[in-house]
Amino acid sequence: MSAAMDTESTYSGYSHYSGHSKKAHRQGRDRHKSPRSKDGSRSEKSVTIQTPPAEPLLGNDASRAEEGQDDNWGETTTAITGTSEHSISQEDIARISKDLEDSVGLDCKRYLGLTVAAVLGLLVFLTPIAFILLPQILWRDDLEPCGTVCEGLFISVAFKLLILLIGTWALFFRQPKADIPRVFVFRALLLVLIFLFVFSYWLFYGVRILDSKDTNYQGIVQYAVSLVDALLFIHYLAIVLLELRQLQPVFTVKVVRSTDGESRYYSLGHLSIQRAALVVLENYYKDFTVYNPALLTASKSRAAKHMAGLKVYNVDGPGNNASGQSRAMIAAAARRRDSSHNELYYEEADHERRVKKRRARLVVAVEEAFTHIKRLQAEEQQKAPGEMMDPREAAQAIFPSMARALQKYLRTTRQQQYHSMESILQHLSFCITNNMTPKAFLERYLNPGPTLQYDRDRWFSKQWTLVSEEAVTSGLQDGVVFVLKCLDFSLVVNVKKIPFIKLSEEFIDPKSHKFVLRLQSETSV
């Protein structure tokens, strides 16, 4: 408990101390300035940070103020105010109501499909049993005795129904992974086929057996067996259409994230556009690095600054002609924009230098922190029971020694919004429990991982929108382009067909591998 209190006090002390130091420095500086300069300095230096409920490790101002910070920014230039409030606009209310309506519609559609499939499945399994039991109930005295062959058919029907039940459960009754905008065509066709098939069997059974009260009970049982056999063949057809048909790669899709241009390639089989979109999203969460909008802030601000250029004023009035001066000013602005690549080069070089420096400090701090803990063996646990700690307590004990270095590194690399203090402590205790090295602990923070690695609430998009010029139920074709949109970015998917490869064969006789040594006077051989 004391370790946890030390951790929280150490962690929150950075901002508290820096805020007081900045306030005292500002008051001393403002005593010697006029009221106008005092107000101007306050308007330029004040920073408001809106902290989310999960209390991330770092403030949200890092993406705005990081470029102008030196290595000692923690002691001099941090200001935190408690003015964050949650607000909602009329557009947000309309969007929330629309999302609720869409979710209600999707739930109704999902449950309607499940209800229809469950009712049809129950009808399929009860039909063979009803074919066998109805003659026994309605005209049992008129039936011919069931011999050995007829009784053996009972066992056949029972085992075939059991196999069909297990196969249907494995193929159809699975937890849905997503809600698609349109029905799955092949699954709908299979349901229609099964309904027509069972309906035709019932029609034939009612006309030829129920109306005439057929006394050949063995033939009736054989008729039920034929129904079960046909249902098994339909189940095999469902496996081919739903599972095996899409396994062979036919298309290659390129997925590009619209904001930063990160791309991946995947191979797909014969799928519809909506099912291909599901495959793309499943692979996106495990293959693409997490989307970090803070990395785009610096480039956008730099582009806006250079697009502003120089302003041109007509100082001689609207009636005078100052075209020569205007052309000179425009040329100067063009030269300034042409030199922007130098500024970009030095900015990136300075950022890389700062990242490397803080990364080295973080690695050293973590390695030193891990040297203070030791796993006790079974015989050592009996000697000093009062000094033992569980992994959570050990993590809270060593975390303050590395917290500041980790804080600075995450701010420099703009990852602070994805790592809260609680998530770091959980990861640290996990590494201690599994006897992992400092390098294994730092892997999550030094290298941006896939999207699934981070907290679900920070990246998960509840709804994606599929935009396509073609019908989403149509199959993939060469040149098809569709877009998957979420709130912050979109995924552009371009489909290309794998080309036909013509492979020829050429035979080489092993006896033809003969060589002659060619000697020259200049060689050393």
UniProtKB/TrEMBL annotation:
<keyword id="KW-0812">Transmembrane</keyword>
<keyword id="KW-1003">Cell membrane</keyword>
<feature type="transmembrane region" description="Helical">
    <location>
        <begin position="224"/>
        <end position="244"/>
    </location>
</feature>
<feature type="compositionally biased region" description="Basic and acidic residues">
    <location>
        <begin position="36"/>
        <end position="45"/>
    </location>
</feature>
<dbReference type="InterPro" id="IPR009539">
    <property type="entry name" value="VANGL"/>
</dbReference>
<comment type="similarity">
    <text>Belongs to the Vang family.</text>
</comment>
<feature type="compositionally biased region" description="Polar residues">
    <location>
        <begin position="74"/>
        <end position="86"/>
    </location>
</feature>
<feature type="transmembrane region" description="Helical">
    <location>
        <begin position="111"/>
        <end position="133"/>
    </location>
</feature>
<feature type="region of interest" description="Disordered">
    <location>
        <begin position="1"/>
        <end position="86"/>
    </location>
</feature>
<protein>
    <submittedName>
        <fullName>Vang-like protein 1</fullName>
    </submittedName>
</protein>
<feature type="compositionally biased region" description="Basic residues">
    <location>
        <begin position="19"/>
        <end position="35"/>
    </location>
</feature>
<feature type="transmembrane region" description="Helical">
    <location>
        <begin position="153"/>
        <end position="172"/>
    </location>
</feature>
<keyword id="KW-0472">Membrane</keyword>
<dbReference type="GO" id="GO:0005886">
    <property type="term" value="C:plasma membrane"/>
</dbReference>
<keyword id="KW-1133">Transmembrane helix</keyword>
<dbReference type="Pfam" id="PF06638">
    <property type="entry name" value="Strabismus"/>
</dbReference>
<feature type="transmembrane region" description="Helical">
    <location>
        <begin position="184"/>
        <end position="204"/>
    </location>
</feature>
